TrEMBL record:
Protein known as: diguanylate cyclase
Enzyme Commission designation: 2.7.7.65
Catalytic activity reported: 2 GTP = 3',3'-c-di-GMP + 2 diphosphate
UniProt pathway: Purine metabolism; 3',5'-cyclic di-GMP biosynthesis
Organism per entry: Lelliottia aquatilis
SUPFAM superfamilies in the cross-refs: Nucleotide cyclase
Length: 453
């Protein structure tokens, strides 16, 4: 318990230390480039806003798709709505910069509306982040369909209300009005600097504390989410120190937000990459399980027949395919004397020997209890016989001592070979003929190799 607490403590310390380093470096970098900002200012703010809009839209879609995968993790939907709502409000912000592509234009920027959109976006995102974090605690509780519908409707109504309120408060509607910036003097009002800004900072600090306490920075996604909260707190604190909307603080804050959003995108891409890696690995494992025999890890019967049919389709006299069917001699006695488990060990030993005795392009398979088969493409009968003889002699040379007990006593094997030289012969016929040769080996005294004539 103490160890876990210490580990978590270390995580928090590392997180805040990383934030400190990041913001320190960022501040130093920004101070260096700030001298160029006035020249770029007609473009910079709206351009960063467009970037942010695209990033937020991307995150919203990604989160919604992630939720769609299992429809269990409803907290993802709260995050999706936070970013989708933010993207809509960012589009609204852009409507207050009508001449951003034309720096010499006379279009007037509506700073007050841009500020209202900014305020509502922050309230909406912070609230949905807090909700998402609380919903995260419910991920292991089975929620009823009604509860799911209730939560989703609640999130939707909240987001829609925030967007509608923003529209009503902005100059698009004359029903309500809110003065955060004086559009003539471009000074921020007392309402902004002494009430709204402070409320927003408190909201983001609440979101940050909730996230840190509940998610305990368990993965990169929550680390980047917490980092975004810190970014908003610092952004708002920077704006607190500024009384003029065209000051550096405004650009500073947007650059901060864009960078923090990029970190979330990085976390999501990392997520996708890890998911791809895990699922690819699982696919590989299940594919291998579907083509291999569970006991010996040799290829199974169906894979062998499939490969043999494939090889036979290109067979010719100059490109013959050899099949070797092998059967352990008096294996029943091994089972009866030493038990089934020891019998299994013998099968595994023989399987390893077969695998080690053939080329990478050859196929060693187990097609029955103690019946093994080798598929040797591009191998004439004489070469196949040499392979079989080598395996037979090697196997018979082992005993209990040289195998550290894997073989309880020396074992022998009988082998039959058939070599196909034309594609007219089927896989079943090949095995049948090699099998016949193997039975001839059994009938003529076992522990020998017979080639089908
Ligand atoms: N341990 C173990 N035994 C198996 C497995 N599959 C089949 N067997 C056993 O393999 C033995 C096969 O014996 P048989 O084919 O009758 O003949 P044999 O004793 O090998 O004698 P010959 O083939 O005539 O030399 C049987 O006792 C089966 O129970 C398995 O997966 N594990």
């Amino acid at each position: 318990m103490i160890l876990i607490n210490r580990h978590m403590g270390n995580r928090y310390v590392s997180f805040f230390f990383a934030c400190l380093v990041f913001f320190g470096l960022f501040h130093a970098f920004y101070s260096k480039i700030a001298v160029f900002v006035p020249a770029l200012s007609p473009f910079l703010f709206p351009t960063l806003t467009i970037f942010l809009l695209v990033f937020h839209l991307f995150i919203a879609f990604f989160m919604a798709m992630k939720y769609w995968c299992d429809k269990d993790r409803v907290f993802l939907l709260a995050i999706a709505f936070a970013f989708a709502g933010s993207a809509i409000l960012l589009a609204g912000t852009m409507s207050n910069f009508p001449g951003w592509l034309n720096p010499y234009g006379t279009h007037r920027i509506n700073y007050n509306d841009a500020m209202i959109f900014f305020m509502m976006r922050n309230i909406m995102m912070a609230c949905l982040f807090i909700l998402a974090t609380v919903l995260f605690t419910l991920r292991h509780y089975p929620l009823t369909r009604l509860m799911y519908k209730f939560i989703i409707c609640g999130i939707f109504i909240f987001t829609a209300t925030m967007i509608t309120l923003t529209w009503l408060w902005s100059s698009h509607s004359s029903l309500l009005s809110l003065d955060l910036v004086n559009n003539e003097s471009r000074q921020m009002t007392v309402l902004w600097s002494q009430v709204v800004n402070i409320i927003l900072i408190v909201l983001w600090i609440t979101a940050l504390i909730t996230m840190l306490a509940i998610t305990r920075l368990r993965n990169l996604f929550w680390v980047s989410g917490s980092f975004l909260c810190v970014c908003y707190v610092i952004t708002l604190a920077t704006l607190l120190s500024s009384d003029h909307v065209e000051g550096f603080a405004w650009y500073h804050s947007r650059l901060f937000e864009t960078t923090a959003t990029l970190l979330i995108i990085f976390a999501l891409l990392h997520d996708v990459f890890s998911l791809y890696r895990v699922s690819h690995l699982k696919y590989q494992q299940s594919y291998q399980n579907s083509i291999r025999d569970a006991l010996t890890r040799l290829y199974n019967r169906s894979y062998f027949y499939e490969s043999l049919s494939h090889s036979l389709s290109t067979t010719s006299a100059s490109k013959p395919v050899s099949v070797i069917v092998s059967d352990l001699d008096r294996f029943k006695r091994i089972n009866d004397t030493y038990g089934h488990l020891q019998g299994d060990k013998v099968l595994q030993f023989v399987a390893n020997l077969l695998m080690d005795s053939v080329r990478p392009q050859d196929i060693a398979a187990r097609i029955g209890g103690e019946e093994f088969v080798l598929l040797l493409p591009n191998t004439p009968s004489e070469a196949a016989k040499q392979v079989a003889e080598r395996i037979r002699l090697t196997l018979s040379s082992f005993d209990r001592d040289t195998t550290h007990g894997e073989l309880p006593e020396p074992i022998t094997i009988s082998m039959g070979i058939y070599t196909a030289q034309s594609p007219t012969v089927t896989a079943e016929e090949c095995v049948e003929r090699a099998d016949k040769a193997m039975y001839e080996a059994k009938a003529t005294g076992r522990n020998r190799v017979v080639v089908f004539k």
